[in-house]
Amino acid sequence: MDPSDRLTELLHSFQRSSWRWECQGHYAVDEAKLQRWRAGLPRDEEARRPWLGFIHGLRVAGATFERVRMLTEPLTEYLRWMLEGTQHNVEAGEDIRWIQQSMARDLGMPAYDFYLFDDQRVAIMRFDDDKLLTDLEVTDDPTSVERHRAYRDAIWPQAVRHADYYAPRST
Is pLDDT at 119 greater than 60 in this prediction? Predict the structure, then answer.
């Protein structure tokens, strides 16, 4: 199964909680959206509506959707774009936090992205040089799950909530 399809399946199958560690400075899946931003065009709110509706539905159902995004040093153009657009995700119900790369390294965070679903399943994401998702390793092995819970538990209290980190520039 294509790793993106498998990830979509996992995102629609957890019951209580989803937690993600994001440590790439760029994700190719968002390239067209990033191009719009570069051109000074507004975000395509209609294209975002399904994701934001999905997140809102999870919150209404009592499930949590949390993530920590690592801020590269120096900050990539992609992450500047993400900072500007994250508020909509937060308003939909995501708890998104940010952490500096140096602090993440000091805390021993892995150099790969992963999801932790319901504290019982880990999905390790691997990307190629073009920043495309090429592999999704899914496991519910207790040792791996515990290691990834420990990563989450180390970084979550150190990461800064989006609203406390980013204030939009007034024009």
Answer: yes
Tell which residue, 106, 114, 107, has the closest CA to residue 154: 107
Contact 121, 140 (CB under 8 A): yes
Domain boundaries, the chain: 3-41+63-165
Do the Cβ atoms of 80 and 114 come closer than 8 Å? no
Asked if residues 120 and 140 have their Cβ atoms less than 8 Å apart, the reply is yes
Tokens found for residue 16: 């209580």
The structure's pTM equals 0.94
The sign of the torsion formed by the CA atoms of 103, 105, 108, 109 equals positive
Sheet holding 160-161, edge to edge: 133-139, 121-127, 113-117, 17-22, 64-71, 95-100, 160-161
Residue 24 confidence (pLDDT) above 60:
yes
Is the CATH number 3.30.870.10 carried by domain 3-41+63-165? yes
Q: How far apart are CA 114 and CA 103, in angstroms?
A: 18
